[in-house]
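S., here's the first fold you wanted:
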Amino acid sequence: MLLAVLLLFLLTEFPAGLLALLSGILGTDFFNNVYLNFGETMDALALVNSAINFIIYCSMSRQFRDTFSYLFLPKCCKAQEMKPTAEPSRTVATACV
């Protein structure tokens, strides 16, 4: 899952970073002629990155789905309540003589 998120991030954010770096190095001509033309595309790629990351997390992590439904879904819409995964620990009193 981490590899998929990292690759998606690199595919969507690397072009924006590269254009920003070239804009800083090459000056206002590059910014006006190139960066302004691709700015909206870079913003759209960042939105796509966020949406697909949410889908990746939901599809690959049951804990993420359970926590998300616990936090954001009303109690009447939940199919099941979050249940603890392990029994609570018990303390046993002992005495040393």
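And the second, which I think is the more interesting of the pair:
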Amino acid sequence: MKHLLSIKELSQSQLLDLLALAKKIKANPADYRRALDGKSVVMLFEKPSLRTRVSFDIGINKLGGHCLYLDQQNGALGKREPVSDFASNLSCWADAIVARTYLHSTIEELAEHGTVPVINALSDLYHPCQALADFLTLSEKFEDVSKVKLAYVGDGNNVAHSLMYGAAILGATMTVVCPEGHFPADEVVADVKQLAEQYGGQLILTSDIDTMDNQDAIYTDTWISMGDKTPMAEIEAKFMPYQVNSQLMAKVGAKYFMHCLPAYREVEATAEVIDGEGSLILDQAENRMHAQNAVLVTLLS
């Protein structure tokens, strides 16, 4: 591994190794207290954040490293000076770059022009750190993740893309249920189907939520991405049939509910489900730090 730009770039062994290392770091944090001793990580954020910023900052500190946060008060990366100059300059001082950007091309440009590892902390196409935390969470509940049946219900966004890649590489079965016009990107679907065939996984796409059955966990996300100006009334009219509620959970036999947060109760999912006994949302949030620490240790050790 030179970077973590997308889960699709990982082999099955690399993905499994990251999950195993994350479990070790979580169980024995003292063993990794100096893993990043003398290392500095710059975080470039174009978008606001709670979990990503805090989990990286505190996680780097727990590994003995130093974190520097840079927001973009002057707008997106590349406006004040070229992204290539950002990357080459930061590479003079920092040991790694963590970037949360609007465009995935910005992440790619940082990796192309920098000389240090780049970690994608979210872009318009992918959210690999979230998916790593999600599969870490599932691996804590299921001994063999390849046997897991995971359903994603809602908008086929960057989180869905990363989950699809992860499930395919791990050999799991993933069902993606979206309203017409909101399916994952065609090129992602094509890639995932090839990976699923290679690793023994399965991808099922449908807009008919009534056909979904026999799931271990249901995952959903907000129906409208940050910065989208579509009126909420218009979004709700299209997405409300895809709300995750106790009736849907019972119908498909799903024991667990997952959400990357922030969650809007009584919108994409009911409060009963979000705050219910089978909700894994806080496990996922905590595991962001452990999964990301595994990535940092792998890239910088």
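Why I say that: The chain has a mean pLDDT of 96. The chain is about 45% helix and 15% strand.

Talk tomorrow,
H.
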